[in-house]
Specification:
Layout (H helix, E strand, L loop, with lengths): L1 E2 L6 E5 L2 E4 H24 L5 H26 L2 H6 L14 H19 L3 H25 L14 E2 L10 H23 L1 H5 L3 H17 L8 E4 L2 E4 H33 L2
Helix pairs in contact: 1-2, 1-5, 2-4, 5-6, 5-8, 6-8, 8-9
Amino acid sequence: MIPFPAINPVAIKFGSLKIHWYGIAYVIGIVFACHWAHRLIRRFKFSIAPKLFDDFLPYAVVGIVVGGRLGHTMLYDTSYYLNHPLEIMQVWQGGMSFHGGLIGVIAMAMLYTKRKGVDFYELSDLLALISPIGLFFGRLANFINAELYGVETNLPWGVIFPNQLTPRHPTQIYESFLEGLVLFAVINLAYQYLPRMRLRKGVTGCLFLSLYALFRLCVEPFKVQEVVVQLGTHNMGVGVVLCMLMLLLSILLLMLRLHACKNTSAHVVQLP
């Protein structure tokens, strides 16, 4: 049993201005992800120049914040935020949906690549390689906010969160490990040591979606499911349903990308 560390969610306070660890975690994640993206661009000769990637960052931030927040308010606590609309964009209070943020970033990437004439699939591969960095820091922020914790446990690493009387699974730490560290290592090592993966644009992005969904499904049974949906005779958490759909869709997209890349390669071979 581990007592929850005495961490104030507010990192810095200037009068009425409060800077939360939650926001700082997002900034740190974006900075580190940007730095890693520059290294990948130089090492693997991406056609996306560092300047073009940096220009995309404002688009990405908008997609993450707006998509993530709207996803949370619409999927997990709709009735509350409909009655308190002014709180919808108070991201410093916590409450961001990965799936909403993902949709937001994809939409912004499509918009940006269309405007700049950049290959969408190449950008999606680059984002897939760096996204686990942000996920790692984001899940640590969830832990600091004492949100999204797990069900009760007797395991020695169970944490007694604020306002809880019994130890619970620190599922935020589980996710920071799987969705952050493990996913980062697997996808970056695969990209480095599998040359064919680098040649098939879009495959890395699809692999990221599949592995994220799979890793999160491993953790979901240990989480408190605050919002559930009824499927037949079973009640399932919204996160579980979204990750199952995400896994199926990503596998389908992966098959389509592999088929498209195969056809493109065959066409190139036939050219005189």
